[in-house]
Amino acid sequence: MNENIFVFNPTVPRLDGSQHLRHALDKLTGKVVGFIDNGKPNFNYLVDDIAELLVSKYGVATVIKRRKRGPSVPAPDMMIKELSGQCDAVITGSGD
Predict the structure, then answer these.
(1) Beta bridge pairs of residue 35
(2) Which of 26-30's residues contact partners 24+ apart within 8 Å by CB, and which partners?
(3) Would you call 34 exposed, middle or buried from its count of C-beta atoms within 10 A (0-12, 13-18, 19+)?
(4) In tens digits, what is the pLDDT along the chain, a chain of 96 residues?
(5) Which residues, at least 6 apart from 72, have a Cβ–Cβ distance to it below 8 Å?
(6) Whole-model pTM?
(7) Do 70 and 38 contact (CB within 8 A), yes or no?
């Protein structure tokens, strides 16, 4: 019995220097916050509640919500480009 077993590495590769991490926001007042809904059940309800709290309690100017096709599918490049161009912070999440 000669079977091949494939093991996939689920880790993200290290940054190569052309990418950089953004600094943390010092405040949320007046900022635009984006959410990427990964399509899992109930995340949309959580996002609605968090968005309301961010605006009412922390003074976030606008919340932008986008939904990708599913948890195992990456967000489309156009979605990433849109959110990175409009948002000061983007939160991705999971439901269930």
Answers:
(1) 65, 91
(2) 28/54, 28/58, 28/59, 28/60, 28/89, 29/58, 29/59, 29/60, 30/59, 30/60, 30/61
(3) buried
(4) 668 887 877 776 776 666 666 678 899 999 999 999 988 888 888 899 999 999 999 999 999 999 998 888 888 999 999 999 999 999 987 766
(5) none
(6) 0.75
(7) yes
